[in-house]
Amino acid sequence: MATIIDGKAVAQKTKAAVAEETKRMSQRPGLAVIIVGDDPASRVYVNGKRKDCEECGIYSEEYTLPADAGQKALLELIDALNAQDNIDGILCQLPLPAGYDYDEKEVIYRIDPSKDVDAFHPFNVGRIMIGDYDFLPCTPAGVMHLMDEYQINPEGKRCVVLGRSNIVGKPQSMLLLHRHGTVTVCHSRTPNMEEVVREADILISAVGKPGIVTADMVKPGAVVIDVAMNRNEAGKLCGDVDFESVQKVASYITPVPGGVGPMTRAVLMKNTLTAAKLHGKH
Ligand code: GUN
């Protein structure tokens, strides 16, 4: 049976380390979170972030804009936050509401790269490519942190990433490459995905389809990291991995919930602290 990776515990430890640092600072780091519209899932995420900030001694501001606020109002808010010294990090919760002509790219580009705690701005993405960065995107960095905590070293390992999103798949593959993994990225046009997955020593799934990874696809002893956050037919939170069967084959596995999710939020706190230091706070 696989060891279950306790994301909650590692996240707690990470947040405690951030809190320890902010306690000693004369100026508190600050995070602004923007939510446009009333998507319930986004609301849950944003409430979680507020709680994390409280735990970590980070000042937080939250801006809720109506779904029809419009691109111009959103950009104006970002401009104002870019200029605000008490704000070190700006996170605009994605996706933006559909049907209102929002331009996500323009929003991401507008955030000052030194306040881009999501690491979505092309300046930061480019820096990650060459391995010279201040921030790493929260989810892929959280995955690396979990592996480090459990002494799982990707060096020389066959790493397979399922999914090629800008938020997870692409940066995840880059981080594994930086750590000397041999990385393959599978996506919707990959033929024989099952065969590729079967070769993985480390499998990271970020597809968003419940049960897409089954036990017969997993090499015995593989490390299986489930990044997805789906709801099954019963409305219950679940990942991409058929946890019950795969845990019998894998050496390590992350649960959903309680695996990667809490780590994503903990890295956001770390990034906000990093941003504050970049802005000269100490
Ligand atoms: N929506 C889902 N995940 C994320 C994330 O990591 N950052 C932002 N800004 N929006 C998200």
> What gap, in angstroms, lies between the N and C termini?
46 Å
Number of strands: 11
Computed structural class:
alpha/beta
CA gyration radius, whole angstroms: 19 Å
Helicity level: 25-40%
Q: Which ligands appear in the coordinates?
A: guanine
Main β-sheet description: 6 strands, parallel
Q: Roughly what is the average pLDDT, rounded to an integer?
A: 97
Name the assembly state: single chain
Shape verdict: globular
Give the SSE string. Answer: EHEHEHEHHHEHEHEEEEHEH
Which consecutive residue ranges, at least 5 long each, have pLDDT under 50? none
Strand content is 15-25%
Secondary structure layout:
Layout: E1 3-4, H1 7-23, E2 30-36, H2 40-56, E3 59-65, H3 71-82, E4 89-92, H4 104-110, H5 122-129, H6 138-149, E5 158-162, H7 169-178, E6 182-186, H8 193-198, E7 202-205, E8 223-226, E9 230-231, E10 237-238, H9 243-246, E11 252-253, H10 260-278
Parallel strand pairs: 1-11, 2-3, 2-4, 5-6, 5-7, 7-8, 8-11
Antiparallel strand pairs: 9-10
Helix pairs in contact: 1-10, 2-10, 6-7, 6-10
Bound molecules: guanine.
